[in-house]
Amino acid sequence: MMTKQEVRELILEVGIVPVVRGASAEQAMMAVEAVYLGGIPIVEITMTVPGALGVIREVARTMGSSVLVGAGTVLDVVTAQRCLEAGAEFVVSPGLDLPTIEFARKEEKVMMAGALTPTEIITAWKAGADFVKIFPCGEVGGARYIKALRGPLPQVRMVPTGGVDLSTVADFMRAGAAALGVGGELIQAEALKAGRPGIITANARRFVAAVKEARAQLGTPKEAAFATVS
Length: 230
Fold this sequence. Notes:
By secondary structure, the chain is of the alpha/beta class. The protein has one domain (about 5-215): Alpha-Beta Barrel (TIM Barrel), CATH 3.20.20. The chain is about 50% helix and about 15% strand. It has an eight-stranded parallel sheet with strand order 7-6-5-4-3-2-1-8, with helices on both faces. Helix 2 packs parallel to helix 3 and helix 7 (about 145-150) runs parallel beside helix 8. It is globular and about 45 Å long.
């Protein structure tokens, strides 16, 4: 089991949080294994996956020493508690739910709280969120929106989700994203349906390379400005 600080540091270091959705638990496990083989040791299992808690439990049991597993689309404290009991090391919500942030803080687990407006972002950060998931980012300006937010809120670790693909990775990193939430552009539903995990593994390698290249251009191996913030 990793400490809260270690989980936070790994997310910052890797810079990519794959959002795992799927039509079945089997598809979700296929996605987890595929992104891991592609060089991404982090997965967010969304509660929309059938048997999501079982998937989290299985990943924690069989890959827990290699893969950091988190729970996504967590809407309330009850669900968050069940996810942590199953083995989740971080919790992600699509919107702002203060009781869930407070619960994660008390449990010493990393919380990635969903928010969109400046008011929601400030509220989430003040409540103790470790990261703020800007969702749906692509619908409100993408990297330009992150850049605008980072002006008055440089201390907030923002994770844009929605609108992130290989063509926008560099723009998001330049705008100041702490990490990137990536769903269907990485874990393609058609690849899962066809039973072709190799496509997802190749996608993962491309995203890892894109983040590495973007950071090299910025002159920093990771978001050092965020890494030192407690």
